[in-house]
Amino acid sequence: MDLGIAGKWALVCGASRGLGYGCAEALVREGVNTVIVARGAEALEAALATLRSVAPEDTRVLAVAADITTAEGREAAFSCEQGPGRDFDIVVTNAGGPPPGDFREWDEAAWEAAVHANMLTPIALIKATVDGMAERGFGRIVNITSSAVKAPIANLGLSNGARSGLTGFVAGLSRSKIAAAGVTINNLLPGAFDTERLRKITKNAAEQAGKAPEELLQARTRQIPAGRFGHAAEFGAICAFLCSQHAGYMTGQNVLADGGAYPGTF
């Protein structure tokens, strides 16, 4: 299927590895000019090289090593040489989730950091780009959030709270006048994907339980109807579809990709 977005410009955050990289690769393969952003310069350069190797001819891939959760980092992305400035057609927001733990141990600074990274940063990126999208008559914003928005995870209270706040904000904005201007905003909710973050959280849980990480990974796999963890490439394919011309009638949605783990009807 031709997604109809070749030649568009995309900004993909947290794109040096994991789910962000999966989204960037899917868009690049569709011929979307893409600016990837991440904090780690070395991993980012490796991702850039790989993306350029799979990019169709004349598709541009640029990289900005910056912390997108800061105003300076966002300005660096918008000021990227040879990039489109703020005139992105597609924005994929993504920031590392806050650490797991017991809410009794989180002080106000921990909550502020979580809300800043996982709620206020996506809102800042939307604010900087959405009006330009509306003026041009096309825009796609996809926020990578978490399955915890649908089914909260006990030891991820910081993520549950911050991401739920973003979800509520998007629910209102996506249904405003920008919808009639051809701009959609959706949230993409990953369940258990085989990423560095999954293994880090599992390691933390294993240490607390006095078990081997592989034991916990196998136990979690058995709870997923698909019988496995997800892959970044298939997550990226869903993201690319949400960014496509074909998804213009989908907005304000929370698209869950979790291998069937969520047991609810709605």
Automatic annotation (TrEMBL):
Family annotation (InterPro entries): NAD(P)-bd_dom_sf, SDR, SDR_fam
One Pfam family of this chain: adh_short_C2
Source species, domain of life: Bacteria
Family note: Belongs to the short-chain dehydrogenases/reductases (SDR) family.
PANTHER family found in the cross-reference section: 3-OXOACYL-(ACYL-CARRIER-PROTEIN) REDUCTASE (PTHR42879), NADPH-DEPENDENT REDUCTASE BACG (PTHR42879:SF6)
Protein's name according to its UniProt entry: SDR family oxidoreductase
Annotated source species: Verticiella sediminum
